[in-house]
Task: inverse folding
């Protein structure tokens, strides 16, 4: 059975710190890996990764995929209190549109 | 504005009662999904539909039912057979054309037992 594991499950940092969130997956036919940010309600899409070694970047957030080792990381530099959220990682298998999600990482950024 | 609208935002269910959660999208998306979110559990797939008049069970379909009579609508019914319905329910959709498209989510419905 496909499985997506995120670590850590929760994390508390101070403003200005850099954080790395991890997502590992077990899948026989990989298609893509997606990252979402969830504050109070709807998860909002951050990145979709399909190829190894190619970094996706948006402002202070970046993400990269390692298809050989079956993991992805999400980096946030110079964290702000507005980065406080649950970050979800979801994996999509080949020939499928469904996403299998991990349990999420709850990030709290304190002033 | 295009988007996914879920209603109501909060819903209370009495014992033995069926309740229906609404999900409407005006994005012209083909595929729609229902997820359940419990604290510390991430998102778990209940049902999904790739096309009108067709849908498939997800990982936790027992106690739930859906219909897909129109492209823009995918209501979820939580039946009395679902013994632990208290959770946050999220609806999502995406376009199938163009290949690998991300899912987009509604704002969710929080369901509680009275």
Result:
């Amino acid at each position: 059975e496909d499985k997506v594991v995120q670590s850590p499950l929760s994390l508390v940092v101070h403003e200005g710190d850099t954080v790395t969130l991890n997502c590992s997956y077990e899948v026989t036919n990989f298609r893509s890996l997606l990252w979402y940010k969830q504050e109070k309600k709807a998860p909002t899409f951050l990145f979709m990764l399909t190829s190894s070694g190619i970094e996706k970047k948006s402002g202070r957030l970046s993400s990269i995929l390692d298809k050989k080792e079956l993991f992805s990381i999400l980096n946030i530099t110079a964290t702000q209190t507005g980065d406080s959220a649950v970050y979800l990682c979801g994996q999509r298998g080949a020939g499928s549109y469904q996403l299998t999600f991990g349990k999420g990482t709850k990030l709290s950024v304190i002033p | 504005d295009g988007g996914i609208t879920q209603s109501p935002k909060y819903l209370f269910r009495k014992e033995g009662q069926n309740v229906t959660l609404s999900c409407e999208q005006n994005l012209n998306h083909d595929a729609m999904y229902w997820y359940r979110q419990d604290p510390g559990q991430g998102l778990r797939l209940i049902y999904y539909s790739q096309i009108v008049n067709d849908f498939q069970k997800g990982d936790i379909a027992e106690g739930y039912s859906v219909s897909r009579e129109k492209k823009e609508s995918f209501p979820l019914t939580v039946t009395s057979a679902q013994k632990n319905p208290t959770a946050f329910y999220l609806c999502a959709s995406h376009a199938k054309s163009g290949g690998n498209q991300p899912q987009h989510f509604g704002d969710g419905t929080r369901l509680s037992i009275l």
